[in-house]
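DM from R.C. (forwarded with permission)

"hey, sorry to bug you on a friday — could you get me a structure for this? deadline for the figure draft is monday and I only need the backbone to look sensible"
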Amino acid sequence: MRELLERSFFPFVIKPGRYCGGEPGQIRKDPTGRVSYLHAYPDRYEIGHAYVGLQTLYHVVNGDDRFVCERVFAVDHDAEAIMRRNNIPLFSLESSRPAIEFDAIGFTLVNELVYTNMLAMLDLAQIPLRSSDRTDRHPIVMAGGPAAFFPEPISQFVDLFFIGDAEEGLPEILAVLHRLKGASRREKLETIAREIQGAYVPELYDADHRPTDDRIPSRIKARTVETLKPEYYPSQPIVPLIETVHNYLTIEIMRGCPQGCRFCMATSLYKPVRLRPKHEIVAQVETQLAGTGYSDVSLMSLSTSDYPEIEALAVSLAGKLERSRVGLFLPSLRPGTITAGLLDAGNI
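My reply, with the result:
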């Protein structure tokens, strides 16, 4: 496969860095005896690589020796034309392995605009678009992310939705696939639906959304991690080979928003508010900067200035970063919470 790409693909695409892999921080593992999971982001590399959740799940899954996680992004128009002309299937960045050869493919759906990109990726992978047309030889197609909270518009195309925070739930799903290696896809999906909170398998429900089996939950409860553990975040993030939309080190400091505005979807999706301790944030910044070389750091949350210790955190980090000539970004600031200390500490 790699030889085919080097001969008929990489020399002809506009930005081969989107597809070739090999970035610092990339993880390569032998798939033999492991559940192979392909994490798919249905948008271009420059956009998907900036999504901090992808780095988190990539690190969490690869941290378990039973699994191997690789990545794939939506290809641009020029690359798609070349792939179709030369019969090149969708492939992973890490090993150039065809997507159809993985045990499971998981799509991160950040909004409804990427639905058609997901279908295009499945078509390029030569995987039947509809769940009902897939057989045991096809990967299990999963979807998560914010748009997965409203799964019905694409329920015909996705085998398994995961609703909520995936840091614990995704490894649990892959553990079931590892345990049932060789079983039918129906048995795997039924077991996941019974055992994993947050898992929704559309084919196990009738037209009125009632489960067809008494052992399947009638209502799906979203999964929430109680604590943002430091082990969720990699010490060595993947550093892209080309410029991305957010070309800086992004650090999650808080999940959820204390404001609870009723017009905001995040109020429902990301509650309750979970804060990370200040010392863990500072330690992550120092560790990840040492392994990446970024010139800027961004403290990320839905409402950064509502982090209770934001001024103390920003002042502390600014003092440390200034010596290395690294800038500090403070996005998502709410009017009325901006102080003189914050203005002095960050690039606002």
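R.C.: lifesaver. The longest strand covers residues 35-41.
me: no worries. The chain has a mean pLDDT of 94.
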